[in-house]
Amino acid sequence: MELDLDSQVLSAYGYTKENIQITQIGTGLINRTYLLSPLSEDKKYILQNINTSVFKNPQAIANNLKAIADYLSKNYKDYLFIKPISTQSGEEMALIQNEYWRMLPFVSDTVSLDVLSDPKQAYEAAKQFGKLSRLLNNFNTTSIKPTIPGFHDLGLRYEQFMLALNQTSKQFKGLAKLEIESALHHRYILDYYNSYTHRSDFPDRVMHHDTKISNVLLDAETYIGVCVIDLDTIMPGKFISDLGDMMRTYLCAYSENETDLSRIKIRLPYFEAMVKGYLSEMKSILTETEKELILFSGKYIIYMQALRFLTDYLNGNVYYPISYPTQNLDRTKNQFKLLSELSLNQKDLQDVIEEHLV
After folding, report:
1. Which of the residues 56, 146, 283, 292 has the least number of beta carbons within 10 Å of its own beta carbon?
2. Would you kindly state where each structural domain of the chain is located, as residue ranges?
3. DSSP assigned state of 263
4. C-alpha–C-alpha distance, residues 205 and 278, integer Å
5. CA end-to-end span of the chain, whole Å?
6. Domain range 5-106, its CATH number among 3.30.200.20, 3.20.20.80, 2.60.120.260, 3.40.50.300
7. What is the rounded CA–CA span in Å between residue 6 and residue 191?
8. How far apart are CA 133 and CA 90, in angstroms?
9. C-alpha distance from residue 109 to each of 106, 219, 222, 225, 326 (Å)
């Protein structure tokens, strides 16, 4: 049933169709998103419908954001944290016909990029993600809950892969033979990670968990970082989640949908800019174990994403949208190539890390 935005959702925030202009924005792959322009105000707002097939507990999102916003407003009043605007009845979200909606302030004179075109952009984005985690260094992570349980749990992703491998058809196994071998071979990444989990200086932190370039707002003229957005996945985790996801999405000029694997290369200037930006905020609080695992974070997240694409292919492409039958298999090949490039360039990359840890 199509919701009547004008009369039901808008009224929850004190607006009607007569006093506001509505424009749908974004791709709509996860949350439906609208730009609201009240006719009698200078401000604009973002209105989003939360996809409950992805986020099965929307209240956890609302509770997490409120707890973090309260902490930041008390301790870092000048920090721009995009928290939801309360409904007329004081709720964090509006529940209309079993669908959850939330309104956010629109940050003017900013841009979000879909593609990196300059190492300076990687620096600014990494700095913003690092800054958020640094400011939340003393925040009690047990006061917030996972919004997607097991999201960056490599052990869980490996179990899901093995289950899919044991249940898939011979045909899929045959077509994915080399990728299955790679997945089994790189199991050592999970074992290596597990060898660190007992260490007391490998803490849970507040992590964004989705650090692609489009989730940072940059000044429209200077491209200096302004703030982090798309906070649905902000939850407890290890630092490798954010830094590793930046490595996965910033270091190659091409996305996981590129099928010409010769194009999958590491861009060293982008790596250096990303590391410099992140460590400019996080170096002072990272533990010795975390510093030791900086480069490993990229291997961890890239391997995990390869497993997720391969698992979905073996399961019959039930999770990731595809435009042709073997796209998830091609994405798997792409990620394993990126993983191999990270290993091939390991010495140069580690040298950059050491330089900026000094």
Report:
1. 56
2. 5-106, 119-357
3. G
4. 15
5. 58
6. 3.30.200.20
7. 53
8. 28
9. 10, 6, 10, 12, 41
Long-range contacts of 224-229 (CB under 8 A, 24+ apart): 224/124, 225/124, 225/125, 225/127, 225/128, 226/80, 226/107, 226/110, 226/128, 227/80, 227/81, 227/82, 227/107, 227/128, 228/82, 228/128, 228/129, 228/132, 229/82, 229/112
Structure tokens at 27: 């791709």
Q: What are the residues whose beta carbons fall under 8 Å from the beta carbon of 69, sequence distance 6 or more? A: 81, 83
Assigned superfamily of 119-357: Aminoglycoside phosphotransferase (APH), C-terminal lobe (3.90.1200.10)
Q: Which three-class secondary structure state does DSSP give residue 35? A: strand
Number of residues that make up the chain:
358
Same fold yes or no, 5-106 and 119-357: no
Checking 103-107 for CB contacts under 8 A at 24+ apart, the result is 103/13, 103/36, 103/45, 103/46, 103/47, 103/48, 104/45, 104/46, 104/47, 104/48, 105/43, 105/45, 105/46, 106/35, 106/36, 106/43, 106/44, 106/45, 106/46, 107/80, 107/82, 107/217, 107/226, 107/227
